[in-house]
Specification:
By secondary structure, chain A is mostly helical. Chain A contains six helices and two strands; from the N terminus they run ααααααββ. In chain B, strands 48, 49, 53, 54, 55 and 57 form a six-stranded antiparallel β-sheet that branches. Chain B is globular and about 125 Å long. Helices cover about 10% and strands about 45% of the residues of chain B. Classes of the chains: A mainly alpha (about 190), B mainly beta (about 950). Chain A: Its main location: endoplasmic reticulum.
């Protein structure tokens, strides 16, 4: 399909003109142009089509089976996201060690905070998963993944000794016992 | 490698405990006062006119030089305590001061300007009688020392012994005095009681006895006080029973009897029961004494007499007169006489010694302290003025050991409170709130009287606060312009108020002489003093704070229990510790000897704690004993217990209070006195708080402390002092039930034992006689991994015995006293304050005295921050809290909490008083002294302005972008 527009006297076309300015759009009104369009012109003679008319058939946009699978897949991605992070977290946990210093603490905080944040915005995630047919299952998996994430964070806290699980952690709150007897005296003066 | 780790651990642990004072902190919150004690000898340096020296020797075995213009010490030598260092005599000639020490054991010569020792001579044994400077031909060359059976002569410049001679018949004759008139002879005077006087005459050159005679004197009972040598060798004696004076020329051979002069012939009479005293003066040891002398006939009657041509003539009669003394300047000798002016003042006048005529314009008015004692010693410093007239200054010592230095016409140049050299017990009391603070406090105390008045009242008090704050700001601003040195806040009793952190307190000190002091702990200023008359020496004092300053408007109240040692009877003295005023509260009469006291936490309606006094019939007297108190006592009687320890019988007994204030014996522990005797018993301090109920182990479990508030630590020493068999016993006894909680015996150990009993531990120090070293031992008691009863503690319900841990350490120094720091809430770690005989105070972290210190370090012990065990206890110089401000003869250390948890106030007393603050865990609750306020505030302001500017810039930029 070669454009003869260059030879056409009243042609507005610039297509192919490498030096000329590029237009965003163009309507070719010359007949010569139509001729070049092929056999339909020869059939119908000089019928003018309205602007923007396309005689090509519109492609079928209705939902197909393949797209549905895609959505499912995407939703599963979302649901499995927290679970997928767990190995990564385990690795970070292993690397950061159990010493109490600023970086491990920051890591633990992040690890603990992300699942909690995710759990708090559970409804938003559910909206995302609405289109999926396995919405409830995916929601459950997402929940379990986040819970596992936070459990991991708690385990990390535990191994770092940040959880008040020992009696020594409550020592400061023990009140001195009240004394029942009053006693005094000393050497005979 | 392991050793390296150990050292690292130690040095790390030290990092947290190091607490030295920085150079610029010296004197910032600490002060020291040095004392000398009761003056026994005082000599003014008359060597040169401009001399400011005053040499004193005291009953505390202190020989010192005072600046007579300021009262400060030039130098001070503190000798051994007890008879070994007792100063027997002090003589001065020129630049030299000769001192006889230790009952004639040593003869020392001191250089008076710098206090350096010139020479020291060891004398032969024998009890000291007298010492005198001996002059030959107007030069003083020798010093003679008279012992019970010998006389020795020493060279004054080198101390070498010239000769020593035995005294004839020294087993029957009591030789007491030496006399030399500068004519090459030394007279030794002795007497046989109720028989005769012996006079021995020695030649100075070789000690040859020139003459020996005895003179009949049947009336003679003592030579020392009633006899004096006057006017070129005339012995003069006075006798009360015969009411006569006796004279005897020493040198003449023909007199074999003393000439008697009846006092009646002179119209004089000795007061009945009074031993008359003769006072003569010998201005120059190389010259014979003056012919004038004082005769004291009664406590307030002196008379100046003159011996002339064997006749005694009165020159002037001083009636009444308290004190009289001679003084010499150049050729002139004067007599100063103190007479009573009125009830509150005395006047001192100067009289010429040879005529008895009064010098004009020489009166010094001495105002007696209404809270002090009567004057009892007068020391006169006479000097020649430019117009050749005699001027003088006097030093007066009173019964309450105050030294007052006065000059004409009665200006007090300086004052020293020497009673403070012997502090027996002390307490620290919070200062009262300021008027404005009290105003606010008072508002809450009163009953509500309507809404509007309350609002108005609040507004007015807030306004007053605002006013005070403005005044404070103004003062700050005003002071800031003045140079730093001139801004010195004088503390007076009116400006006393509690500071922000309650760091300034009132130190109430009780001294052995019976004088009470109130001292500002910040500056060491004596704010009030009160002399309690009629206190026998060796009385026992016990000071009790019954009401603190916390109960406005009730004034604070202290009670002093004074127990007479002889009669055993006690008396109570109740006073306000802030102002020193005696309270007009009726005190209970104590007809029976008091054995012990017990301060109950029960308070009466006036917020005073109830004091129980137990007498020798085990009956209890309550003070105060209002109806309210008795009612409360009846309610609480069944839970009041007390214990008594009788060291002589080796008996500890526990009593319970009955409703009717009688007592019943509930337990008794007898420690047989044949084997060991109880030397000390200590409970825990009542105001001690323990914050943590347990200790955290390495595995994060808890080892709970055995915190028994009724626990007593009883220390015994064996009666057998053989070094192989001697021992020290330690008993931990529950004071309520009498149960022996723990018992330990330290074999081959000897006292004196110093110990501290606090929280759940006991630290004691003893002498290990096998290895000949001092050792620290620490006992800690734990309940175990579980608390038996975490809400209440009752000694009657403790089925499980505690776990006891013990460890001992070598301490490389002898110690003289031991105390532990104390803080408000007990969060701060504890330190032990160790007073060393050198005068230093060591602050030893309790961390080093921990029986859980492991021999082998493990992961867990490292987790617990335990220092690995090392038998040697280190002494680090930065642990000395008093840097070079040594405290002589430390007798006690008193610790008190301040308003800041990190800070503990420490008072060390002995011969000196030293006050400081210690921070056992460093100052974690206050900014450091060198905190850079300027930097921090400039950074803050800088950041603030930077944000403001950048905000503005950002706005402009946004706007510009919007326009584009």
């Amino acid at each position: 399909m070669t454009s003869p527009g260059g030879q056409g006297g009243g042609a507005l076309s610039t297509r192919g003109g490498a030096t000329s300015k590029r237009m965003k759009w163009a309507v070719e009104l010359s007949l010569g142009n139509c001729r070049s369009r092929g056999d339909r012109q020869s059939k119908d003679g000089d019928v003018m089509y309205p602007v923007g008319f396309s005689d090509k058939p519109v492609p079928d946009t209705s939902v197909q089976e393949a797209d549905r699978n895609l959505v499912e897949k995407r939703c599963w991605d979302v649901a499995l996201g927290p679970l997928k992070q767990i190995p990564m977290n385990l690795f970070i946990m292993y690397m950061s060690g159990n010493t109490i210093s600023i970086f491990p603490i920051m890591m633990v905080c992040m690890m603990a905070w992300r699942p909690i944040q995710a759990l708090m915005s559970m409804s938003a995630t559910f909206k995302l998963l609405e289109s999926s047919s396995q919405q409830w299952l995916q929601g459950l998996v997402y929940l379990v993944g986040n819970l596992l994430g936070s459990a991991l964070a708690i385990y990390k806290c535990q191994s770092m000794g940040l959880l008040p699980t020992h009696s020594s952690d409550w020592l400061a709150f023990i009140e001195p016992p009240q004394r029942l007897e009053i006693m005094g005296g000393g050497m005979v003066m | 490698m392991a050793w390296l780790v150990v050292r690292l651990a130690i040095s790390l642990s030290l990092l947290y405990t190091a607490s030295a004072v920085f150079e610029d902190q010296v004197g910032k919150f600490d002060w020291r006062e040095q004392f000398i004690g009761k003056v026994r000898f005082a000599l003014f340096d008359t060597h040169s006119q401009a001399s400011k020296k005053l040499l004193v020797a005291t009953d505390k075995n202190v020989f010192a030089s005072l600046n007579s213009r300021t009262g400060d010490l030039f130098w001070r030598h503190v000798d051994k305590t007890g008879p070994e260092g007792h100063i027997d005599a002090l003589l001065m000639y020129g630049q030299d001061a000769v001192v006889v020490v230790g009952n004639g054991r040593l003869l020392r010569s001191w250089e008076t300007t710098v206090g350096g020792l010139k020479w020291e001579a060891v004398l032969d044994t024998g009890s000291f009688q007298a010492a005198a400077l001996i002059g030959v031909q107007d030069f003083v060359k020798y010093v003679a020392v008279l012992k019970k059976s010998a006389i020795s002569l020493h060279d004054l410049s080198s101390g070498s012994q010239i000769w020593v001679e035995n005294l004839p018949d020294s087993d029957t004759v009591q030789y007491q005095t030496i006399y030399s008139g500068g004519n090459g002879l030394v007279f030794v005077l002795g007497f046989v009681p109720s028989s005769h006087i012996v006079i021995v005459e020695y030649k100075i050159e070789d000690g040859e006895i020139m003459k020996k005679k005895s003179v009949e004197a049947a009336w003679m009972s003592s030579l020392e006080n009633s006899c004096a040598v006057i006017s070129s060798g005339n012995l003069l004696c006075v006798d009360q029973t015969t009411q006569s004076l006796y004279t005897l020329p020493l040198q003449s051979a023909e007199h074999t009897e003393m000439r008697q002069i009846h006092l009646q012939t002179l119209d004089l009479e000795v007061a009945s029961g009074f031993q008359p005293v003769l006072t003569s003066t010998q201005p120059n040891p190389a010259q014979p004494p003056l012919a004038e002398f004082f005769l004291q006939l009664s406590p307030d009657h002196h008379i100046l007499l003159q011996l002339k041509d064997d006749l005694i003539a009165p020159l002037r009669d001083f009636n009444p007169s308290y004190l009289a003394a001679f003084a010499t300047s150049g050729e002139k000798t004067v007599a100063a006489v103190m007479t009573s002016k009125n009830d509150t003042a005395c006047s001192i006048n100067l009289f010429s010694a040879d005529t008895g005529r009064r010098h004009l314009d020489t009166t010094i008015i001495y105002h007696m302290d209404p809270n002090g004692g009567k004057p009892n010693r007068l020391y006169v410093h006479a000097f020649l003025k430019k117009d050749d007239s005699v001027g003088y200054r006097v030093m007066v010592q009173t019964e309450d050991l105050t030294l007052t230095f006065l000059q004409q016409p009665g200006r007090v140049v300086w004052m020293r409170e020497e009673a403070l050299a012997d502090v027996v017990t002390m307490e620290m009391v919070d200062l009262p709130l300021t008027g404005t603070q009290a105003e606010l406090e008072g508002e809450f105390g009163k009953k509500a009287d309507g809404l509007l008045p309350m609002v108005l009242k609040r507004l007015s008090s807030q306004f007053i606060l605002l006013q005070a704050w403005m005044a404070h700001l103004w003062k700050l601003f005003y002071d800031a312009r003045k140079p730093r040195s001139s801004v010195k806040n004088e503390v007076t009793i009116d400006t006393l108020s509690r500071d922000e952190f309650n760091l300034q307190k009132m130190m109430v000190m009780v001294t052995a002489s019976g004088k009470l002091f109130g001292i500002d702990s910040k500056s060491g200023t004596v704010l009030w003093k009160q002399y309690l008359e009629d206190i026998k020496p060796d009385s026992i004092f016990k000071l009790i704070v019954q009401r603190t300053t916390a109960h406005f408007p009730h004034p604070p109240q202290c009670t002093l229990l004074i127990k007479d040692k002889d009669t055993g009877l006690g008396s109570l003295y109740v006073f306000n510790p802030i102002f020193g005023k005696k309270s007009h509260i009726s005190v209970p009469a104590l007809p029976r000897p008091v054995l012990q006291t017990l301060l109950l936490p029960v308070i009466d309606q006036d917020y005073a704690k109830v004091l129980l006094l137990i007498d020798d019939q085990y009956k209890v007297t309550a003070f105060p004993s209002t109806k309210n108190v008795l009612q409360q006592l009846q309610d609480t009687a069944s839970s009041v217990f007390f214990y008594l320890v009788d060291s002589s019988q080796g008996k500890l007994s526990g009593f319970r209070l009955r409703m009717d204030l009688s007592t019943e014996l509930i337990w008794e522990v007898v420690i047989p006195t044949e084997v060991q005797k109880i030397v000390a018993v200590k409970g825990k301090r009542a105001n001690e708080h323990v914050h943590s109920q347990g200790r955290v182990m390495g595995d994060r479990s808890v080892l709970y402390k055995y915190l028994n508030p009724n626990l007593l630590a009883v220390i015994t020493e064996s009666t057998d002092i053989h070094q192989e068999r001697s021992f020290v016993g330690i008993f931990l006894i529950d004071g309520v039930t009498g149960r022996i909680v723990h018992e330990a015996v330290q074999r081959k150990a000897r006292g004196p034992v110093h110990f501290v009993h606090s929280e759940n531990w006991l630290v004691y120090v003893y002498w290990n006689s096998k290895f000949r070293r001092n050792e620290f031992s620490v006992l800690e008691l734990f309940e175990g991994a579980e608390l038996y009863n975490s809400t209440v503690f009752s000694s009657l319900d403790r089925p499980h015995p505690p776990q006891v841990l013990q460890q001992s350490y070598i301490f490389p120094a002898p110690i003289s006293t031991l105390e532990a720091t104390l803080t408000e809430k007990g969060i701060t770690s504890r330190h032990l304050l160790v007073g060393l005989p050198s005068g230093s105070i060591l602050s030893l972290p309790k961390m080093f005295l921990d029986p859980r210190r492991p021999e082998l370090i493990s992961e867990q012990s490292r987790e617990e921050n335990l220092i690995p065990y090392a038998p040697e206890m280190p002494i680090r110089t930065e642990w000395f809290i008093n840097y070079n401000q040594t405290v002589s003869r430390v007798r006690g250390i008193y610790t008190a909490p301040s308003g800041l948890e990190s800070t503990c106030l420490v008072v060390v007393y002995g011969l000196d008083i030293y006050q400081t603050r210690v921070f056992p865990s460093k100052q974690f609750d206050v900014l450091k002294d060198d905190y850079d306020y300027v930097l921090i505030s400039s950074v803050l302001f800088g950041l603030f302005f930077a944000t403001m500017i950048s905000k503005r810039l950002a706005e402009v930029k946004l706007l510009n972008r919007a326009w584009r």
